[in-house]
Specification:
By secondary structure, the protein is an alpha/beta fold. Helix content is about 60%, strand content about 10%. The chain has helices spanning about 10-20, 40-55, 70-75, 100-110, 115-125, 135-145, 150-165, 165-175, 180, 185-200, 205-215, 220-230, 235-250, 255-270, 275-285; strands at about 5-10, 30-35, 60-65, 80-85, 90-95.
Length: about 290
């Protein structure tokens, strides 16, 4: 790796130009090392390998701390190896010790977006606008062409489809995800949102649904529709109240729709949300 255009040794006189100034164009890892340091000898080839994998989007500057003691002192290096990431002239992050490859890559991912990550970000930004769906998903199609086995791209697509109301297509994607991805909190939340939207369906306005329930408290179909609408309006407590009433009045209604609706809302809110904790206790009391 010594002849790599992306890996180079640097001394104090050239540090400003080759690292600080150059980092405005390309992020630069700075590896402070020494010949006598065993972990340094383990880490350096690994850093070089990772740098090479970025194909010019990252460079590695090696600083021999024994020969460049003033430079090491200036940056407060207290142990070897110490690795700093310089972007736009600033040290944005650092670590010490010979970390494994996976941790180093995670360290870099926080600050350096890959081409796929940039495309995913572009899709998320477009999704927040009025851009047509075809334009929104185009970056994800490009990302999938680069990494066809990247399940994160599919999750992004499902998330966008849910936001645009394409619920059936989104659920089809979510149901086809690998097992290790299907258990992620975001995937569970998206499925829950789809289920809640299906409770709502198209129908009368909220006020009319409330009037129907006032006229007949046992109109569970209307309660279910109201609960779904309230959930979509993010009136989660109101939705939980309606689902709870359905559950209290008839556990058999629409395949236990009350309980299923509450569980979906717990998934959307998260286990630590006060509403989840409160209504979970109420559900437990009703069940037992």
């Amino acid at each position: 790796m010594s002849d790599s255009p992306y890996v180079f040794s640097v001394t104090a006189p050239e540090f400003q130009a080759r690292v600080v100034d150059a980092s405005h164009e390309t992020p630069i890892l700075v590896d402070f090392w020494a010949e006598w340091c065993g972990p340094c000898r383990t880490l350096m080839p690994l850093l070089a390998k990772i740098t090479e994998s970025y194909e010019g989007k990252l460079r590695l500057a090696k600083v021999n701390s024994d020969e460049e003691q003033q430079l090491a002192s200036h940056f407060g290096v207290r142990s070897l190896p110490t690795v700093m990431l310089v972007i736009n002239g600033q040290i944005v992050d650092q670590f010490s010790g010979a970390l494994p490859e996976s941790q180093i890559r995670d360290f870099l991912k926080k600050h350096i977006l890959s081409d796929v990550d940039k495309l995913r970000q572009q899709a998320r930004e477009l999704a927040a606008t009025d851009a047509p769906l075809e334009a929104v998903v185009e970056p994800l199609k490009q990302a999938s062409g680069i990494e066809p086995n990247n399940a994160d791209i599919l999750v992004d697509l499902a998330d966008i489809l849910v936001g645009r109301g394409e619920l059936a297509q989104a659920m089809e994607i979510l149901n086809a995800l690998p097992i290790d991805v299907a258990g992620r909190p975001l995937v569970k939340e998206l499925k829950a949102r789809i289920n809640l939207a299906q409770h709502a369906s198209e129908g009368p306005a909220t006020d009319e649904l409330l009037a129907r329930i006032a006229a007949d408290e046992n109109d569970l179909a209307t309660r279910e529709q109201l609960a779904g609408q309230l959930a979509l309006q993010q009136d989660y407590e109101g939705a939980l109240g309606q689902f709870f009433e359905i559950m209290r009045r008839d556990r058999t209604f629409n395949d236990d729709a009350g309980r299923r609706g509450m569980l979906d809302l717990f998934e959307v809110l998260g286990g630590d949300h006060p509403l989840t904790k409160n209504w979970r206790r109420k559900m437990f009391g009703l069940l037992h």
